[in-house]
What we know:
This protein is α/β, with parallel strands linked by helices. It has one domain (2-125): Response regulator (Rossmann fold), CATH 3.40.50.2300. Helices cover 45% and strands 22% of the residues. The protein is built from five helices and five strands, in the order E-H-E-H-E-H-E-H-E-H. It has a five-stranded parallel β-sheet with strand order 2-1-3-4-5, sandwiched between helices. Helix 2 (34-44) packs parallel to helix 3 (60-69). The protein starts with a strand and ends with a helix.
Amino acid sequence: MKVLIIDDEEDFRTIASSCLGLLGGAEVVEASDGEEGLKKAEKEQPDVILLDLVMPGMDGTQVLTNMRKNPATVDIPVIFVTTKGMFDGFDEMKKLGALAVITKPFDPVKLADQVKKIVEDAKAAG
């Protein structure tokens, strides 16, 4: 599985990348902001994207909206990642195609399994 992490926090990217790569066996690509994330999503064609909701410049909602307008990224599954208590309006995100929300802080040992389960459940649901 190839995972793209789009998050402005380097610490989060490093920890999540290690968890997904070392513990989960995933190929991980990172982007530090929305614009870079959009480019990498198109180029890398990941199986899933972990997308931070709150970022300077282009936030997660704007990134997802732009992805859904691009034929190359329209079908890539997205899981939002945000600080606990900062997320409301997930119904709107689901309309854009977000699969789920993982809150920070997350359990590093469980992250890879969480992501795999969310993607598998979404595929099974069709």
